[in-house]
């Protein structure tokens, strides 16, 4: 059986093939190849891996993952955590690898419940004059922008009908002024 490098080991490999999603690297001492995904080629964004490496290039890589899938061992490699000139480990404690893993995970709300405010303070702030909080909880700076609670749907409807009524009366006033002239 072939001896594979240990997890997080650094070695120099040769680029076997380049694809649109990364490059396959020959692992020295065995017939296996590992994939350097384009997100692990550089700390900068890589759109075309062929712009970074060519077939036959020698590159320093770090083994960052081993996964068994369909009875095949898949090896994940990274170039961005290894200095390509000296082969020195730029991430000895694997901090950036952990950060990359966290970025991939997305937050899922398994409760699927809407967040609602249960109570609204029926107060007016003495500091800013807005409804819904006390002066000691006010975050407005002197002369700054004022914030207030969003009105309920019913209040919006009442305000909208009141605005339309005011608009109609002002139009009627304008037309009566025109007739007087």
From TrEMBL:
Residues 8-80 form the S1 motif domain. Residues 163-181 have a biased composition (Basic and acidic residues). Residues 158-181 are annotated as: Disordered. GO terms for cellular component: nucleolus; ribonucleoprotein complex. Its main location: nucleus. GO terms for molecular function: RNA binding; zinc ion binding. Keywords: Acetylation, Metal-binding, Nucleus, Phosphoprotein, Ribonucleoprotein, Zinc, Zinc-finger. GO terms for biological process: RNA stabilization. InterPro entries: NA-bd_OB-fold, S1_domain, ZCCHC17_S1, Znf_CCHC. It holds the Pfam family S1. Residues 125-138 form the CCHC-type domain. SUPFAM superfamilies: Nucleic acid-binding proteins (SSF50249). It is found in: Nucleus, Nucleolus. Interacts with PNN. Associates with the 60S ribosomal subunit. This is Zinc finger CCHC domain-containing protein 17. It comes from Mesembrinibis cayennensis.
